[in-house]
Design brief:
The complex is a heterodimer of chains A (about 180) and B (about 270). Chain A is mainly α. Chain A has seven helices and no strands. With about 270 residues, chain B is an alpha+beta fold. The N and C termini of chain B lie far apart (about 55 Å). The chains are: A mainly alpha (about 180), B alpha+beta (about 270).
Chain lengths: ~180, ~270
């Protein structure tokens, strides 16, 4: 299941990046696009190993950059660092709580564009920035916050569908059995 | 997992990023196309879904509506045919004059229609991918336009798809002429990226105008043909406002683009 789960995560990242580039409705409605990769990274870093985190950062980052005008590879490092930090502290995080998932998703959604911008500016790029960028950044952070619990829910359902159900413990206790009839 | 192996993975990822960011432009472009090739099945799926939806829409349109549309198209076709006759005559006359003046005549545009398949997922660039590539004759630096005006230029030409940098992207600068109300060239300047921010899709900055013979808001802006990427005379937009710079020595302004950059679906590529 571990390998299958990583494949599911990568497949969702692949589809998510493609939808980010092709779905125009969200963009024309809000003037900004949602971002699925930070939410997926939060899920992966809380539930999978560092190998899966690195795989998602490399594949997801490269897929995003190849559809964008970003220099190839610029999204990989911020995505990986977010995943790495969460993975290191995963023992202290309440990963089952929806509130923690939303908070981590918000933080990841906000940090991912900031990290990418930081790298771009240090590489000598001149990205298009203005006051409108703040709104787009807020939408990216919010989408991260909203999509993270959805990722947990989706993968939990997938896990239930592909794994054998856990054997239910019987409530019957032999020491409480009522013996009928005469002795 | 041991602490050592965590840091090995971290170092490997950092090394990979450093290598990728330092690749020569041509290799990075090829790698970008190769990685983007993974999306070909999804592009195909999206195109077939688009066709299926269009077919479904066709069967829903009433016969009366279709007949009305055919009539409109016939009328518009007749008008365009008359315009074409007139333009052909002007074109011949222009060629004769070029011959007399011993200057190279302007070539007619070889246009090819393309569909926009992907928009840039990052909000700090303006680029799209179109479904035409080198197989269809598209090369890097081909001009891309709509019926309304210039849209951008081809940045990377893959075999079946190409990346187009749109006007307003920081990586695209276009030499333009500002036309006076009479149609004569009043000023020359350079179209830069938009300082109004990423949400103002249709506004770009116009710089390096001389302060001597100022342009006016409402003046038309067309490509100048300098630089040989864009042929001259492609409509670009209209001057919105102007402001003096450097104590009046130069003027900067903003141009509202004719093409609606927020709703690009089909574009035309000028083939070399």
């Amino acid at each position: 299941m571990s390998c299958l789960n990583t494949i599911f995560v990568l497949a969702l990242a692949y589809a998510g990046v493609f939808l980010e580039g092709t779905l125009g409705g969200f963009r024309s409605l809000l003037g900004a696009q949602f971002s699925l990769l930070p939410a997926l990274m939060v899920y992966t870093s809380l539930t999978r190993g560092i190998g899966a985190v690195a795989l998602l950062a490399v594949c997801g980052g490269l897929w995003l950059d190849c559809l964008s005008a970003n220099p190839l590879g610029v999204s990989v490092l911020p995505l990986f660092l977010i995943g790495f930090l969460i993975w290191r502290k995963r023992g202290l995080l309440l990963r089952e709580q929806a509130f923690a998932q939303v908070a981590l998703g918000l933080a990841a959604g906000a940090l991912f564009p900031l990290g990418t911008l930081f790298l771009l500016l240090n590489l000598g790029g001149s990205p298009l920035l203005g006051w409108g960028s703040l709104w787009q950044w807020a939408v990216a952070a919010l989408s991260g916050g909203l999509l993270t619990p959805c990722c947990f829910l989706l993968f939990e359902r997938a896990r239930r569908a592909f794994e054998y159900p856990a054997l239910q413990q019987s409530s019957f206790r032999p020491d409480r059995e009522i013996k009928r009839g005469r002795r | 997992m041991s602490k050592k192996s965590q840091y090995i993975i971290l170092v490997l990822v950092v090394l990979l990023v450093v290598v990728l960011l330092n690749l020569p432009a041509q290799t990075a472009g090829r790698l970008r196309l190769a990685v983007g090739g993974l999306f070909v099945p999804l592009f195909g799926l999206a195109a077939s879904t688009h066709e299926a939806v269009a077919k479904g829409g066709d069967s829903l349109v009433s016969r009366r509506e279709l007949l009305r549309e055919i009539q409109d198209l016939r009328a518009s076709n007749q008008v365009l045919t008359l315009h074409l006759q007139q333009t052909t005559a002007v074109w011949r006359e222009n060629d004769r004059l070029h011959l007399m003046l011993n200057t190279p005549p302007q070539k007619p545009w070889r246009l090819r229609m393309a569909r926009v398949i992907v928009r840039d997922p990052a909000f700090w660039w303006r680029s799209v991918w179109i479904d035409l590539g080198s197989r269809d004759g598209v090369r890097a630096n081909c001009a891309v336009l709509t019926a309304d005006g210039l849209v951008g230029k081809v940045q990377i030409a893959g075999e079946t798809r190409s990346q187009v940098l749109l006007l307003g992207d920081p990586g695209l600068r276009v030499s333009v002429n500002v036309l006076a109300a009479t149609g004569a060239v009043n000023q020359s300047g350079i179209l830069m990226s938009s300082s109004s921010g990423p949400r103002e899709n249709n506004l770009v900055d116009l710089e390096y105008l001389s302060g001597a013979n100022a342009a006016h808001p409402g003046d038309r802006v067309v490509t100048s043909g300098v630089g040989e990427v864009f042929t001259n005379g492609i409509p670009v937009g209209q001057v919105v406002d102007l402001a003096p710079r450097d104590n009046g020595l130069s003027v900067e302004g903003r141009v509202r683009l004719f093409a609606n950059m927020g709703a690009l679906e089909e574009v035309w590529v000028i083939l070399p």
